[in-house]
Input
Amino acid sequence: MALGNHSTITQFLLLGLSADPHIQSVLFVLFLDIYLLTIMGNLTILLVIRADSHLHVPMYFFLSHLSFLDLCLSSVTVPKMLKDLLSEIKAISVRDCLAQGFSIFITAGTEGFLLSVMAYDRYAAICHPLLYEQMVRKQLCLQLVWGSWSLGFLNALINILPASNLDFCENHTISHYSCEIPSLFPLSCSDVSTNLLVLLCSTLLHGLGTLLPIISSYARIVSTILSISSTSGRSKAFSTCSSHLTAVSFFYGSGFLRYLMPTSASSLELIFSVQYSVVTPMVNPLIYSLKNKQVKAAMRRTLGKYLPCSSWKSKAKG
Output
């Protein structure tokens, strides 16, 4: 990567979450556990959806891609964080820093678009059940997923290209545990006004372009659910979209706030970053497995294939 002629910085130092060695040890154990749960949870969702034919429908096709994205998003930041928690010098090269920032952008951005797609799927299933197969065809599902990845890539590209032309002259300490693009702007001795404008516009366009369809879809879903006469019917209809609503709340409640708020190296920034890039990928599999009867049933069927029959029955009774 070519940096400007005035750049003298070749690497950054990450301050991380804490400078206290004792706290770092505790954080290492905590985030290692979170990462292992994230890997196991999302891999389980991917395995169950692939292995159980009952889940070979659009809703779970999208869920499998969400789990893959959560694996990617967590793996972009957490392994480096764990390594730094055990290191005295938490260094990262400028090239690797920009690569990490790009990876965070593309995975988180794609996840936002995919959550919007999943809201459309729930709208079609609840509001137009008789037309569902026509509205969510297999070919359309593939197009929506690839479209989400393409838009996520474009969103990342238009932010990383201006950032790659910045010069970093003196200050090379990032008050963060990862290289999120907004954290680089205060370190640059170049004019970052264009970068800030691009970041603000792209974040607003991305946020509105994904959140408004979600709000619109759920406004119609709620209207349809309220028109159902039976209590059991309303409960069943709501249960099919409650998991997605919870996932949307976790993601949007922290991710977009992180990129819209001014960079100030505050603890609130770190909390928002940990929320959307570390906690949310761990929580999503739990949300979709604990709150979804079909996924729980599929897990029992899938695990039953690999556990001895007597052992599985005894576990089921317990």
In short: DSSP finds twelve helices and three strands in the chain. The chain has a mean pLDDT of 84. The radius of gyration is 22 Å. Strands lie at 11-14, 91-93, 173-174.
